[in-house]
Structure formats: structure tokens, C-alpha cells
Write a structure and sequence with these properties.
The chain is of the alpha+beta class. It contains 14 helices and 13 strands. The protein has helices at residues 2-13, 16-22, 28-42, 86-99, 109-112, 126-130, 139-142, 144-148, 155-162, 180-193, 197-206, 261-272, 279-285, 348-360; strands at 47-53, 56-63, 65-67, 72-73, 80-81, 215-216, 231-232, 240-241, 257-259, 300-306, 309-320, 323-330, 335-341. It is globular and about 55 Å long.
Amino acid sequence: MQRVLSCLVLACLFPGFLMAQLHPPVNAAAQRVDHVLDSCSKRNFNGAVLIAKNGKIEYLKYTGLANRHYDIRFSEKTRFKIFSVTKTFTAVLIMQLYEQGKINLDATIATYYPEYKGEAAKKATIRNLLTYSSGRDTKDMRDLFEAYSNDIWTPDEFIQKFCSEKLIDTPGTKFNYSNGDYIILGRIIEKICKKPYEEVLREKILKPLHMVNTDYLHHNDIIKDIDEGYANVDSSTTEIIMPTNHYIDNHFAAGAMYSTPEDLLRFDQAIFNHTLLKKETVELMLTPYEKLGDVAIGFWVYPKKFGKINTLFAERQGAGYGHNANWVHLIDKGLTFILLSNTNTVELNKMRMNVISAYLGQ
């Protein structure tokens, strides 16, 4: 009672006092991030930004349109297509099998997938696939339209047609990014577990973590509140079109998932707090291969400096047909940054650096 009377007295003497109690000052870091988000929104950024410290959300905002046909804005209900962020889920499934003694990272593809006909069969290892260094000719990335837009392929058909070329490099010696390496890994998971990839994904990751807004996507699925992707014409921030039709099914274990910022934070915390994998296994995952451009298993890991602040960066991106995802974990600081969007008008790699710098005050 005495505190209430004191507040009333102060309110009479200083009219701004009561308003300050009802609307306390916004966190300075959040204000700085707001400034970055406002600036990017003017360039037609549409999506979400999440920042968490040790798993606790400190900033989460949605802006723009998830669906332009029906003028539906982004909200906490929206589910985003995350494309290559799917690869980190696949990497975790492989590392779970490694922990169980069911897979040897230095065994060749043919050990677990004897039907595979490519030259890499008895030359490239599981580790090579995980680090995009299988040495294969990456036809699936060169012939994007044929691989992902013309027809639906079963994983075996896709692998036979787009991932079974001759070697162009000695396995393990050169980084050459492709979906194909992770599509082969997805098929290996199916072979070992004797179940479809999506069932293993749900059983081993999604259900244990209660990721109820995350799943594997087929092109003909009807998913409530899922976003649409939009591409911009040339470098315009205002002229936006619907991208060419594609079959998400063909991305398989390399890119066929959708999720939300909060669900991805659950996954982030499960990895970095060793819920899904032992500490030693996570450390193995996060060990970068410097000769392969600092790629690790499921991430890229490297030191980074923001002004006077040094940190250790773990990052994973995803992109396709207007959709963009950017996930960063500062390993030594327990900070997580997740940026998701459905337009190409703002480059998330640049935006995330500005968001992180703003949050850190640098």
C-alpha cells in the first residue's frame, strides 16, 4: 500500500513517471536490432528475426507478407520452407547412427548403399559426403531445372540420374557444394534404419524435441500457415514474381523441410546442449576442415570478429525459390540468431551480420 501511495505521489509530481512504469524503456540491444529490421523492411524484407541467449528468446519479430495472393502477414503461426537447413537434420541423424555404432564415417558409400553405381561408390566416404568433398561431378546443381522442376524422382532415380557421375576430384581433397551428397546420405539413413527418411526424422528428432511445427514436405501436401516464396526481378526490391514451379520432394534429405523460428531454436539448443548427441559427438561435428573452407558437419565453423568482440561462429544457410534461411550460433557466447524470409530482396548473409553487430553493440 505504501509503495502504491509513493507511486501516486511521484506521478503527481512527475507526470512521466507513471508512463515509465507502464511502458518501461525498450532494451537498448532490441532497439538497435529494430533499426536494422526497419531498414531491411524498407528494402522489402519479409520474414522473421529471432535472437536467443542460452535458449531464452530475447528478440522475435515478424514483418511483411507470407502470402501475397491473399495479403496474409507473417506471424508466430507461419511455417517457413527452410531448404538446406534440412542438411543439418540429416547430419544429426547420421551422427546418431555413428554414436550407435551403426555407421563408420570413414567407410565408403558402397558399404551401406551397395546399389549405388557412381564412381564414388568405393572411393568416397560418409565423412566426404558430410563435408561436400565426395569428388563427384555435381550434375544436380548444374542442371537445376531438370533435377528439381521437370518431374518427380524417387531418391534412387534421382541419385542414378544426377548423382552417379564420374569423379572429377580425389575424394576428401576439394570442397564442391551440392545437394547430391546429402541426398545420398538420406538414402543411406533409410538403408540402415529400414524406414523412410521422413519417419526416421520424426522419430529421432522432431517428436523428442516436440517440434510440432516442423516436418518433411511433399509438393502436394496441404500445410496450414505455410509461406509462399517470391523472387525479385533483377535487383529490384519492389518488382516481385512467383518463381518457377518445382518439386520440393526432389530435395529429399538435402532440403525438403519446413519449420518456424521457435522450433529451430529447440533444435539449436538440443545440439549445443548435447540433448540429441553426446558432447564428444557434437565437438566432432563442430570441428572445421580448414582445407575445405571451414566446413564442419552440418555447419561451417570459424572465428569471427565484430568490432572489439571475438567469437566462434557456427552457421547454416538454406535457400530456394525465393525462400531464405540463415541460422547462426555463437558457440562461445550461447547466442542464437535465426533469420527466415520468403523474398530475395535482402541478402540474409549481409543482414545477419548487421543484426549480430547491432545486438552486440558493435
